[in-house]
């Protein structure tokens, strides 16, 4: 098939546009990587001297370590709770009819449209009104509320694609409902549950706005600690933290992509 | 109902019906499946055959009516306590288990000892000739092998009834025939009561002891394959099972078991097996293609037609004929391939004196499959 | 026969969480009708004053800014996101598709802080962009991006892009390629195929992406807070400021509530639009 001049032009225009857009997406991460090696406390491009000192500083700054610990704890607890509750709800949503099903679904999905600052403010006011302590569990609860809809959606999609015949075959072979759930449904849903849980953990780890409302000095998460650092200091320590952050996430995503294929997880095949 | 007839029924369906959100999937149905019988539920998609199968299995709950398996009332019994074996269309082999684990599943749920489980699994795999595949995963097997595993898995629990939900539809033609023979052999050897769901009339005719032809949630006829094929009870059955040529005819009267008909202007006396003949007047006459005989155009009493298309089928040819007396203007005949005629040739069709069935016209309008 | 053996077990945790969500929402509603007692954390008696206060100019400006940010961000994100999504779904080589996928989606998992901070370094007066432009001799003095709408929109587009690409790609990937092939076989060139087949069929995805872009931008806090630096006040930054600088939680609550009602209204309009489009599409 011979291509016309117009086709060639379109091909080239498409390539240039695509490269420009990808450059836009990558630009801030490249710039932050360069900045992180800038020796001086005040930024300059290109850097006059290069050094690793801001990486050392990042590791020595206490709030980042404490924030990372908090964030990991919160992500693990929050994702686990959201996964258990969300998977259970996705199951009843897919399989059963019951009263107030739509109401329950509406409330649980509402954090998708309620802005995070409103969720944070609401839970802060609620905990104050109920005289609950502002501890780590309040942050965990906030994160559960925020990541639940994503877990429910992801597990629900897995359930919709689930071949019910497997369960029926197992039932016909004498498996009681619990037995079938344990030996057939859960093992076959495991990839969907794992990706849902991982997605929830990543979202929770990144959550900033709602956390800002509900944390205190001792429960601040890594993003909150980073935000507070920018407000106090102008040096490139945060650039170093950002580079580490980006690399860690990219590695995790590459692993996930290997095992689950992101196209599938995100339904863009 | 005498206790003897009830003893005879492995599955008894008493007035069971089912609707889905207002749409009737199954009208109240009465059916007895005999012990050791191979019964086929045959019908087009949406006829209710799969609904009936799911009701027997317990995956659906009947709206009304009662269901007995081995004289035990099971209407309210959940599927896992019904002791039924099922082979699904796509086999539903558990992908996360080996072949042996799949077959052992039903024994594990019954807490059968390890030694006995191993023995019975080996036995079941031997029955379907898959001894050497015990440690494979389902996806490493061919379609035919997967189906054998599904069968072994269903048989190993010694089910009271075996349900087959279109199990052959995913196989290619040669394999399908081989599997049909093999399944029927095993079924006969074990004397296993079997309910087989299919939309494929050839499969139904070749495998069954009895066939229940279904449409629109009702059983339209139940009987042995030759009953169904040779003496269809109504127009639906006649057109759904096998090929049918339909003619517009006029019934003039009945005299001593012979119906006086006019077809294509010529008189045709027909000996009929039917007990419920329609009223005299316009009727629809049903004739199997193999009962029609091709004659010269001028032959006395033959219905005139013109060859429209000849379709080569290997051992024979299908002649599609334009025929003014036929419903829809078309009929089909099979002739030896060597005798195929080119389009445009006028011919005559001689209709048989025995065998054709006569149905009321209004049935024909709504019931042609 | 128990037809719903797991209902109680499986629904209970989520019911508990739903009660939590409903309670926190009611807390906001309740606070927004209470008077603020300066210096005290507990609110005073019932009042409508919070809502009448909202008519003041600074609150009105925040609403206007938020709407403008949402609008501009949605427009630019769609313009940039559509080609990216198209390339992601349609690129011929698997490697290229994977690369585009990873590059465009990684930011989704990076959170607002890292991304916003990176843009601060790009957009600052001594930042990368101004340094580059000055070195090329295109400008003598740095262009102010920080603390301006332009800067906030640039960062917000980058923030919203990944989710918009996901939604557009999901829509594009579900278009039957044979429809395009059919159009080509009927003599349509590539441009015509795109304009008459691909683009119309991807409209539902575009509408869904737009409403999501709107919700994300509306919800954004770190970006307008850090890049706007108090000069570009939005509802989110205002709620935070009223709550944590003035400790006026009743007013913060009423601002949040008004903002939420506004979001719901906009999304409802979007949904009506989607339904209408689907009816035109013959779904």
Condensed summary:
Helix content of chain A is 77%, strand content 0%.
Draw up the topology in text.
The complex is a heterotrimer of chains A (269), B (369) and C (283).
Chain A: H1 5-36, H2 53-60, H3 62-95, H4 101-109, H5 116-129, H6 136-160, H7 164-172, H8 177-206, H9 209-214, H10 222-232, H11 237-260, H12 262-265
Chain B: H1 3-8, E1 9-20, E2 23-34, E3 38-42, H2 49-57, E4 64-69, E5 72-73, E6 84-87, H3 99-109, H4 114-127, H5 143-155, E7 161-165, H6 173-190, E8 194-198, H7 201-207, E9 210-215, E10 218-223, H8 225-230, H9 235-240, E11 245-255, E12 258-263, E13 266-271, E14 281-287, E15 293-295, E16 303-312, E17 316-322, E18 330-336, E19 346-350, E20 357-360, H10 361-367
Parallel strand pairs in B: 3-8, 3-9, 6-7, 7-8
Antiparallel strand pairs in B: 1-2, 1-4, 4-5, 9-10, 11-12, 11-14, 12-13, 14-20, 15-19, 16-17, 16-19, 17-18
Chain C: H1 7-32, H2 49-53, H3 57-90, H4 94-105, H5 111-123, H6 128-135, H7 149-173, H8 177-185, H9 190-201, H10 203-219, H11 222-228, H12 235-244, H13 249-280
Helix pairs in contact in C: 1-13, 3-4, 3-7, 3-10, 5-7, 5-11, 7-10, 7-11, 8-9, 10-13, 12-13
Written overview of the protein:
The complex is a heterotrimer of chains A (269), B (369) and C (283). Chain A is mostly helical and 269 residues long. Chain A has helices at 5-36, 53-60, 62-95, 101-109, 116-129, 136-160, 164-172, 177-206, 209-214, 222-232, 237-260, 262-265. Chain A has one domain: MetI-like fold. Helix content of chain A is 77%, strand content 0%. In chain A, α2 (53-60) packs across α11, α3 (62-95) packs across α10 and α7 (164-172) packs antiparallel against α8. The longest helix of chain A is centred in the first third of the chain and has 34 residues, at 62-95. Chain A is globular and about 75 Å long. Residues 1-6 of chain B have low confidence and may be disordered. In chain B, α6 (173-190) links the parallel β7 (161-165) and β8. Chain B is built from ten helices and 20 strands. Chain B has two domains: 6-233, P-loop containing nucleotide triphosphate hydrolases (Rossmann fold, 3-Layer(aba) Sandwich); 237-367, Nucleic acid-binding proteins (OB fold (Dihydrolipoamide Acetyltransferase, E2P), Beta Barrel), CATH 2.40.50.140. With 369 residues, chain B is of the alpha+beta class. In chain B, the strands form four sheets. In chain B, strands 6-7-8-3-9-10 form a six-stranded mixed β-sheet, with helices on both faces. In chain B, strands 13-12-11-14-20 form a five-stranded antiparallel β-sheet. Chain C has 283 residues and is an all-alpha fold. Chain C has one domain (61-282): MetI-like (MetI-like fold, Orthogonal Bundle), CATH 1.10.3720. Helices cover 74% and strands 0% of the residues of chain C. Chains in contact: A-B, A-C, B-C. The interface between B and C is small, with 5 and 3 residues.
């Amino acid at each position: 098939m011979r291509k016309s001049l117009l086709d060639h032009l379109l091909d080239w225009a498409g390539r240039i546009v695509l490269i420009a857009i990808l450059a836009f997406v990558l630009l801030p991460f490249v710039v932050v990587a360069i900045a992180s090696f800038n020796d001086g406390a005040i930024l300059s491009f290109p850097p006059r001297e290069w050094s690793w000192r801001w990486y050392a500083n990042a590791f020595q700054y206490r709030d980042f370590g404490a924030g990372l610990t908090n964030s990991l704890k919160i992500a693990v607890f929050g994702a686990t709770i959201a996964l258990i509750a969300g998977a259970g709800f996705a199951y009843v949503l897919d399989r059963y009819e019951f009263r107030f099903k739509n109401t329950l679904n509406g409330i649980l999905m509402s954090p998708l449209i309620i802005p995070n600052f409103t969720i944070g403010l609401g839970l802060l006011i609620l905990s104050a009104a109920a005289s609950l302590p502002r501890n780590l569990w309040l942050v965990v609860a906030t994160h559960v509320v925020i990541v639940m809809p994503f877990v429910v959606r992801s597990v629900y999609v897995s359930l919709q694609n689930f071949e019910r015949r497997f369960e029926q075959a197992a039932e016909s072979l004498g498996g009681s409902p619990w037995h079938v759930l344990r030996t057939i449904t859960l093992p076959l849903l495991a990839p969907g549950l794992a990706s849902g849980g991982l997605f929830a953990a990543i979202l929770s780890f990144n959550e900033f706005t709602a956390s800002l409302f509900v944390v205190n000095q001792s429960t601040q998460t890594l993003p909150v600690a980073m935000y507070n650092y920018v407000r106090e200091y102008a040096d490139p320590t945060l650039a170093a933290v950002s580079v580490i952050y980006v690399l860690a996430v990219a590695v995790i995503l590459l692993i996930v992509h290997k095992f689950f294929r992101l196209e599938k997880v995100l339904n863009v095949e | 109902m005498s206790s003897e007839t009830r003893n005879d029924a492995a599955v008894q369906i008493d007035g069971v019906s089912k609707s889905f959100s207002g749409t009737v999937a199954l009208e109240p149905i009465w059916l007895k499946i005999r012990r050791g019988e191979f019964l086929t539920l045959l019908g087009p998609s949406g006829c209710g055959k799969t609904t009936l199968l799911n009701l027997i299995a317990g995956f659906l709950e009947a709206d009304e009516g009662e269901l007995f398996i081995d004289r035990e009332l099971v209407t309210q019994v959940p599927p896992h306590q019904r002791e039924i074996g099922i082979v699904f269309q796509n086999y539903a082999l558990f992908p996360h288990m080996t072949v042996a684990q799949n077959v052992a599943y039903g024994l594990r749920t019954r807490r059968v000892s390890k030694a006995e489980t191993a023995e019975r699994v080996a036995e079941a795999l031997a029955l379907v000739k898959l001894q050497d595949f015990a440690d494979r995963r389902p996806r490493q097997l061919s379609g035919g092998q997967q189906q054998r595993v599904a069968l072994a898995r269903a048989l190993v629990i010694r089910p009271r009834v075996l349900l087959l939900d279109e199990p052959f539809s995913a196989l290619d033609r040669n394999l399908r025939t081989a599997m049909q023979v093999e399944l029927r052999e095993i079924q006969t050897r074990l004397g296993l009561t079997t309910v087989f769901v299919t939309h494929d009339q050839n499969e139904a005719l070749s495998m069954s002891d009895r066939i229940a032809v279904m449409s629109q949630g009702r059983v339209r006829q139940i009987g042995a394959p030759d009953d169904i094929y040779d003496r269809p009870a109504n127009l639906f059955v006649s057109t759904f099972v096998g090929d049918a040529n339909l003619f517009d005819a006029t019934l003039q009267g009945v005299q001593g078991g012979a119906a006086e008909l006019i077809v294509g202007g010529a008189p045709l006396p027909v000996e009929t097996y039917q007990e419920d003949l329609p009223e005299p007047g316009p009727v629809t006459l049903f004739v199997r293609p193999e009962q029609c005989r091709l004659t010269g155009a001028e032959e006395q009493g033959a219905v005139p037609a013109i060859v429209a298309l000849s379709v080569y089928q290997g051992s024979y040819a299908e002649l599609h004929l334009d025929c003014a007396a036929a419903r829809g203007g078309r009929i089909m005949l099979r002739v030896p391939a060597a005798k195929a005629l080119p389009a445009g040739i006028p011919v005559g069709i001689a209709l048989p004196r025995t065998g054709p069935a006569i149905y009321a016209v209004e049935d024909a309008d709504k019931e042609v499959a | 026969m128990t037809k719903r053996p797991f209902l109680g077990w499986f629904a209970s945790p989520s019911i508990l969480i739903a009660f939590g969500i409903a309670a926190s929402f009611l807390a906001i509603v309740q606070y927004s009708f209470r008077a603020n007692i300066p210096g005290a954390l507990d609110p005073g008696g019932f009042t409508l004053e919070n809502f009448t206060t909202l008519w003041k100019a600074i609150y009105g400006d925040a609403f206007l800014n938020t709407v403008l940010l949402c609008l501009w961000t949605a427009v630019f994100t769609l313009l940039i996101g559509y080609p990216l999504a198209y390339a992601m779904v349609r690129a011929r080589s698997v490697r290229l598709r994977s690369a585009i996928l990873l590059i465009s989606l990684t930011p989704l998992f990076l959170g607002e802080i890292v991304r916003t901070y990176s843009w601060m370094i790009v957009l600052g007066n001594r930042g990368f962009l101004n340094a580059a432009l000055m070195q090329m001799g295109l400008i003598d003095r740095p262009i102010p991006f920080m603390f301006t709408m332009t800067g906030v929109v640039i960062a917000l587009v980058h923030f919203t892009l990944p989710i918009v690409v996901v939604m557009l790609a999901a829509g594009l990937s579900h278009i039957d390629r044979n429809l395009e092939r059919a159009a080509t076989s009927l003599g349509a060139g590539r441009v015509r195929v795109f304009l008459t087949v691909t683009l119309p069929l991807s409209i539902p995805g575009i509408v869904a992406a737009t409403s999501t872009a709107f919700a994300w931008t509306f919800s954004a806090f770190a970006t307008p807070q850090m890049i706007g630096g108090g000069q570009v006040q939005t509802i989110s930054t205002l709620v935070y400021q009223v709550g944590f600088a003035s400790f006026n939680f009743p007013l913060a609550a009423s601002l949040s509530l008004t903002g939420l009602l506004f979001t719901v209204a906009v999304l409802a309009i979007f949904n009506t639009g989607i339904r209408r489009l689907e009816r035109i599409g013959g779904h």
